[in-house]
Amino acid sequence: MNMHDSIIAGNVASDISISAARLIVEEGLDYGAAKLRAVKQLGLPARTPLPSHDEVEAEVRDYIALFCADTQPAELQALRQLALVWMQRMVDFRPYLGGSVWHGTATKLSDIYIALFCDDPKSAEITLIDHHADYVARSIKGFDGGMVEALSVHAPCKALNTEIGVHLMVYDYDDLRGALKLDSQGRKPRGDVIEVAKLL
To answer: How far apart are the C-alpha atoms of 129 and 127, rounded to whole Å?
Structure first.
């Protein structure tokens, strides 16, 4: 690829990142879906190389700073408080908060993603039943790229006057070490109950 092509590719990636960031903040899309929708909206070929999650996250932070600075901090605080409630309910399963609620880019349209590390995965479901939680079990992509079971609930959030999707992703206990490796920006990818409480 020559310099001219590199500049064009960089501009395209930037355009996709900016469009995806708006979709993430304004519509609550996840990063993967937002990038694909951005490609369509920009009229680009389906096989256009996509920007990294880090590039999109940088644009999300810029978008929030420009357009949501007066509302986002309170929304993030409410989501973290709700996440902590669920982490405390599931404390026996070593809960770790990840995603935008942990990293600070969440809005009221964001879902909460909590990783559980269980010796017996079924015991997490039993605990939800004990809490009379109406949940749906499904498979979603985990942090290692494989599919994991997620127990998803719609949790009322009084502070935001809405329901928030809370996804409890069930991993084997042995997966915990890999879950705590620093991400590409050198950050902890998720935090435990004590660390989330400190954020509040």
So the answer is: 5
8 A C-beta contact, residue 148 and residue 114: no
Given a cut of 50, whether residue 2 has pLDDT beyond it is no
Nearby residues of 177 by Cβ (< 8 Å), 6 or more positions away? none
- Among 34, 67, 100, the domain-final residue is 67
Estimate the share of the chain in helix, then strand, then coil, as percent rounded to the nearest 5. Answer: 50, 20, 30
Q: Could you tell me the residue range of the domain that residue 162 belongs to?
A: 72-199
Q: Are residues 26 and 7 in the same domain?
A: yes
pLDDT digits (tens, 9 = 90+) for 75-121: 999 999 999 999 999 999 999 999 999 999 999 999 999 999 998 87
On whether the pTM is more than 0.85, the answer is: yes
Which amino acid makes up residue 118?
Answer: C
Where residue 120 sits, what CATH number does that domain have? 3.30.460.10
